[in-house]
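tool_call: predict_structure(chain=1)
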Amino acid sequence: MYTTDRLAGDPRAVKPVGTNRAATVPAGAATRPLTGPLAEQPMNAELPFLADGGCACRAIRYQLVSRPLFVHCCHCRWCQREGGASFALNAMIESDRVLRLAGEPVPVLTPSASGRGQTILRCPTCQVAVWSHYAGAGAAISFVRVGTLDEPDRLPPDIHIYTSSRQPWVVLPAGVPAVPEYYDRHAYWPATSLERREALLRA
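tool_result:
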């Protein structure tokens, strides 16, 4: 977790919360709009990318300081029930690349299809969900709700999952992978995203 306190002499450095040690924002933290699904572009962590977002009342503000690992559009009935919508759009990203600019979301333990639950982070005022953590990777990876970004159109889905339970009137776009249940990440993720995930799990 980081605060936005700038350090003298380095406008790109931030302070990790609760320490006096400087931490550098991951390389390439400058705005660069996407032109299509991430799967259609090289997922190079060095490419510049920034994306701001927050809750409805703006008490929570955050910033993604790199491209996400991958973007899921999930059509499972659990996501439909939890979100009250036809699908959930989540950007998977290392949690230390989610810069907290204002406010502190509160964790809400929520049941999941796996039986292991997920922790949804919500604004304590308006209760909007901004991201969540699943039991698999725990708090190390955040599933950021793409709809809470100021420009959510910058992160279209890389894959549609659990399409076997999608609403029948939802038309899936051509050219974007779609699977009836879950999938093998090695078959769909860019190599750089796989490398980032492995580095995270080794840390």
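agent: Residues 71 and 91 are 4 Å apart (CA to CA). Proceeding to next step.
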